[in-house]
Amino acid sequence: MDRLPGVVLLGAMLAVGPLKAQTFRYASTGDLLTLDPHSADEALSNSFKNNIHEGLVRFDEKLEPEPALAVSWKNVDPVTWRFLLRKGVTFHDGTPFTADDVVFSFQRQRSKNSVMASHVATIKSVKKIDDYTIEYVTVGPDPILLRNLTEHFIVSKKWCEQHATTEPVAGLKEETYATRHENGTGPFQVVERLPDTRTVLVPYPKWWDLPNKKYAITRAEFRPIANAATRLAALISGELDLAYPVAPQDVARVEGQKGFRVIKKPELRVVYLGFDQWRDESLDMPGSKKNPFKDVRVRRALYQAIDVEAIHAKVMRGMAAPTGLTIPEGTEGYDAKLRQRYPYDPAASRKLLAEAGYPDGFPVTLDCPNDRYINDEAICQSLVPMFARVGIKATLNAQTKSKHFDKILRKSNNNTSLFLLGFSPETADAMATFVPTMTMKGEGAGAWNAGRYTNPKVEELVEQIRVEMNQEKRRALMSEVLRIHKEDVGHAPLHEQLIIWGVRDGVEVTPDARDRVQLRFVKMRK
Amino acid sequence: MGLLRGLLEGTRRGTRLALALVAAYVLLAAGARWVAPQPVQDLRSLDLMNSSIPPAWDAEGRREFLLGTDEQGRDVLSGVLFGLRLSMGVGFAAVALAMVIGLAAGLLSGYRGGWLDAFLMRIADAQLTFPAILVAMLLDGVARSVLPRSVHEALGVPVVIGAIALAQWVPFARAARVGTLVEREKGYVQAAQVMARPGRSILLGHVLPNVLGPIVVIATIGLGNAILTEATLSFLGVGIPPTSPSLGTLVRNGSAYLPSGAWWMVVFPGLALAGLVLAVNVAGDGLRDGLDPKQRSAVS
Amino acid sequence: MIAGLLTRLLQGLGVMLVVGLLAFAVSTKLGDPVNNMLGQNATIEEREAMRRELGLDQPFVVQYGKYLSRVVRGQLGVSYRLGVPVGELLAERLPASVELSGMAMLLTLVLGVPLGIYTAIRRGSLLSKVILGASLAGLSVPTFLTGLLLIFLFAVQLQWLPSSGRGEVVSIGPWTTGLLTASGLRSLLLPSITLALFSLALLLRLVRGELLDVLHSDHVRFARARGLPDRSIHFRHGLRNALLPVVTVAALQLGNLLAFSVVTETVFQWPGMGLLFLQAVQFVDVPVISSYLLLAAVAFVLINLVVDVSYLVLDPRVRSTVGRS
Questions:
Q1: To probe the interface with B, which of C129, C139, C298 has the most B CB atoms within 10 Å?
Q2: Residues contacting A324, CB < 8 A, separation 6+
Q3: How far apart are CA A462 and CA A458, in angstroms?
Q4: Parallel, antiparallel or unpaired: strands C175-177 and A80-85
Q5: CB-based contact (8 Å) between B46 and chain A?
Q6: For a surface tag, which of A134, A219, B98, C285 has the fewest beta carbons within 10 Å of its beta carbon?
Q7: Spatial contact of B50 and B260, defined as CB atoms under 8 Å apart
Q8: Which distant-in-sequence residues (6+ apart) come within 8 Å of A310 by Cβ?
Q9: Are C299 and C258 contacting, i.e. CB atoms less than 8 angstroms apart?
Q10: A460 touches chain C (CB under 8 A)
Q11: Is C197 on the interface with B (CB under 8 A)?
Q12: Contact call for B236 and C262, based on CB within 8 A
């Protein structure tokens, strides 16, 4: 059943209080892939999770952890954390929340099909002490456990068992009950889910944090609109209250429109290129027994063929921040001293290529999504002539994000030679980037490391950082990782993305640095 | 030659104008490589810093980019010329293929008759209701399901040509069949049969010249449809692979920039396309009128 | 007459079976058939069960028969892209496409027939020339361009009408309609005009052509000679005979509409089956593509059948010959 009976809906609305019906309508490029919080680890799906599900801990508006389903915690010893759970919390179907659900959710989130396993990778085990107390044992001392727990979502054990969805499915080719239904504890519940058309949420009248609620809406409707021009038109014509992202070329138009404004804010996301560094023979050069990207000179040559200032000026229209690091500013571990890029220098590129044995360049396929990052396809299209000028004959393969990710990630054995990715450390800590994108060994490693970049020194350092409790020492170790990765040209960073939201006046909304629409902070006036 | 003169004799001035326009298009498109200011096929000629420049007569325009540039710095005029070349090339090829298939089927059907005739005509009837777009998309969908991606891209152009041809062969077949049936009743075919000349030359010798008139008209009309179909498929993203952009792809890319005011990226390719199809349609109309004054204009 | 209808019916079934074979081949022989039905994350037990059910070890005819029985029951597989059963997807999207095509068909008939008549009766007038010129343009401008320009003018610049989506829809049982809300109707306007333009131009010229033929035909000339008033000639003798082929073309245009709706739905982001099909082709969503093949075949066979029947009803001359053809 995708629609709640009208009576319950009415009751829900009445219970929230005598408010004028304030529907918040918003749209983004793609749709969320699933309602199952453990089945997708993709930004749009992730941003929805915060509205429906919760973890023991959540982020406040400044991206600092604060209590959510847990009221307090303490370290029993360096690797054991005891959490006292909140009483009186219910799931959307009325079932009370207890420690059993926490234990179950942990097993589910780290099961072999769960794509969210990396967020709980540092937890070795969970133990129920009593109905409202649990204990996590971590692999080693973990300075960022709380941050990671904000991405560990609690589901109802009873509900999952009842609907035969005790294990999540990875991806979309199959669905379980949890794909289109949810039973979270969060401030909003889903009353309609039409994939690729519309998802409708209403406030959950029995939410535990209702007395402190910071939202003023009675209904939220989300639509995916892939076409930027259509999305813009829908915003300007008043059909939407929020459209994100607004493509850079459309920003002037929205700003010039009375009754609308554009919110720009740096996002915790870096867009970069990755290279196949593990195959002996490149996928695009069958029979040659060569893989150009195994040579750091080739990687560097490609890097220096990129005129990032031109991309910044013409494709992003000034709405991005070119960088030489794959960690965005504002992340714990960011080092401003290393931000400087290698210079744009096609002559140097050609020289490096010749030195490496490719004086006439080589063919390569550039894999790109076309509906995920701001102007992603346009960026890749602009790269092709730049590469051609130094002899690298790139063929662009742009496709929808789900296919793109399926192709370049482990599911298809990292079936790519050169790819575009935009990665965000969602817990605002550099480890959230290091582990999935720069390592291959260790717990939760390499889930997004589509080129399989690995350096033994980096792997070692990451293990050290994992258990380093001293903040100063930790930062020094992280800088060292960044330095080595940069020298290795493990990836070719392009820029930090900007959050660009088109908002109708009368709507109060603040993007968090991860480009998520947190409905619990949305207010509609009028 | 006599055929051409015969066709043109009955035509109005407007038709001759349209035909001249079509000829001009063909020449321009064929000579794109020499006429176009920028060799847009060569990626190294593109400079991103030339992105989104308005047409030359605008304050921010530049003389070297007469019709402006797109967001990748490609000269719109050059893009349109190369796009025309592609669109027309595919259109002509598709119609030619459809003509060959249709003629073969129609001649065979009319001459042999019997169950072959009934069978082919049933297929024709059933297929007539499938519009070209649908056939092309279904074919493309099946091709993508069957072939690995690189093969599918390499075969991109032939698949589109094949798909459009498949959607257009029926009118040719019908005309050929009718012509054959008519000729069959005439005395000299029977006489030739009595004289034991081989069947093939009977057909080619007597039937073909007489059905050629209607065939040319159908071809002209089919050309307009073929060009539109190809452009539509490219616009939808399921046509020719985007490495060689057709007019439809140019409109598709440009449409994202229409709301921000960059109208030239859509309007010029669109006008070129519409102009071409209009000229072809008017020419086709006129030729049909010239051929049979009783027939009123109706493009179908 | 019944014999003729039966023949047509059988031929239609034949076409459907052939297309069904193609759809069967696409969906089961290409790629792992179990994958197509269950998706890549099914357990081993589920795969074995499906393999037995699909009868993959059994003779081809049996497999095809089982496929047909599944199809008839509405089991068309699970969409690769959305993870939702194809049957459900199609059912969800059907109302949107039907309303769009229906409105476009309405516009085509309501405008095309009168305009065609006018330009036939008043051949030399300036207005006729303008209308004919516009119709020629309508046939030459691609649908997507029309849509884009209409959006730019009415939705972006003038802001009179919405640019995408269906607006508010009301559910009546399994159907969702946009016809009962103001925003629904406003959302329907631009897409249906865009979709109708080509058919409208075509129908207009066809009506004109047929009417001109008839008006100059012998028995109309005799009627005039008998002194019957023009109006009576035009409407009683001319129109009725002209309508016959027009009905055929109108019905065939309905088929065209269903196909061109792909373009219109794309430009306006109209959540119908056309957009679904396009996304399926782009994504290589095999279950949806093969289901579409079937659906298209069924639709067109039905349309053909309806045309044949209406011919029989409208023209007594045809009734006697249909058995022979």
A1: C139
A2: A338, A339, A340, A341, A342, A486, A493
A3: 6
A4: unpaired
A5: yes
A6: A219
A7: no
A8: A382, B48, B49
A9: yes
A10: no
A11: no
A12: yes
C-beta atoms of A388 and B259 within 8 A: no
Strand, coil or helix: A77: strand
Give CA–CA dist A348/A365, Å, rounded.
Answer: 22
Cβ count within 10 A of residue B94:
28
User: Cα(C158)–Cα(C103) distance, rounded to whole angstroms?
Assistant: 23
Name the minimum distance, in Å, from the CA of A228 to any CA of chain B: 6
Report the C-alpha gap between A240 and A506 in whole angstroms: 12
Of A229, A378, A386, the CB nearest to B71: A378
Separation between Cα atoms, residue C64 and residue A355, nearest integer Å: 60
Instruction: Find the DSSP H helices in A338-375.
Output: 346-355
Chains A & B: contacts with CB separation below 8 Å: 57
Q: How many CB atoms lie within 10 A of CB A520?
A: 18
For B271, half-sphere exposure in the C-beta direction (CA atoms, 13 angstrom radius) is 9
Contacts of C84 in chain A (CB under 8 A): 175, 180, 195
pLDDT digits (tens, 9 = 90+) for A36-85: 898 887 788 888 898 999 999 999 888 889 999 999 999 999 899 999 99
User: Which residues are CB-contacts of A473 (< 8 A; sequence separation ≥ 6)?
Assistant: none
Pairing mode of beta strands A198-203, A188-194: antiparallel
Q: What is the pLDDT of residues B148-191, one digit of tens each?
A: 766 777 777 888 888 888 888 888 888 888 877 777 776 655 66
Cβ pair A187, A519 in contact under 8 A: yes
Tokens of C219: 């028995």
Tokens coding C255? 């088929």
**Distances in whole angstroms, Cα of residue A436 to Cα of each of A286, A453, A488:** 29, 11, 17
Distance to chain A for C254, nearest Cα, Å: 26
Contacts of A232 in chain B (CB under 8 A): 259
β-partners of residue A492 are A273
Please indicate whether, in this complex, the C-beta atoms of B51 and A385 are within 8 angstroms of each other.
no
Asked if the C-beta of B232 comes within 8 angstroms of chain A's C-beta atoms, the answer is no
Instruction: Give the type of residue at A513.
Output: A
Q: 3-state DSSP call for residue A76?
A: strand
Determine the Cα–Cα distance for residues B209 and A183; give it in Å rounded to an integer: 75
Q: Measured at the alpha carbon of residue B176, what is the angle toward residues B171 and B182, in degrees to the nearest 5? A: 130
- Give the gap in angstroms from C-alpha C173 to the nearest C-alpha of chain B: 30
Residue B94 host element (H or E): helix B76-112
Q: How confident is the model at residue A422 (pLDDT cuts 50, 70, 90)?
A: very high
Predicted complex ipTM: 0.79
Question: Which chain C residue has its CA at the smallest distance from A236's CA?
Answer: C156
For an interface test with C, which of A28, A219, A237 has the most C Cβ atoms less than 10 Å from its Cβ? Answer: A237
Find the residue in C nearest to A253 (Cα): C156
Q: Which of B72, B243, B260 sits opposite A253 (nearest CB)?
A: B260
The shortest C-alpha distance from C35 to chain A (Å) reads 8
Position C113: which residue type? V
Q: List chain B residues with CB under 8 Å of A225.
A: none
CB C307 within 8 A of CB C252: yes
Beta bridge partners of A324: none
pLDDT given for residue C46 in this prediction = 65
A175 to C35: CB separation less than 8 angstroms, yes or no: no
Interchain contact, C281 vs B130, CB within 8 Å: no
Burial class (CB in 10 A: 0-12, 13-18, 19+), B96: middle
Which chain A residue is nearest to residue C276, measuring alpha carbons?
A196
User: Of B6, B32, B89, which is closest to residue B291 (Cα–Cα)?
Assistant: B6
Which tokens is A81 given?
A: 């954390």
User: How far is the C-alpha of A196 from the C-alpha of A38, rounded, in Å?
Assistant: 20
Q: What is the pLDDT of residue C226?
A: 76
Classify strands A491-504 and A523-524 as parallel, antiparallel or unpaired: unpaired
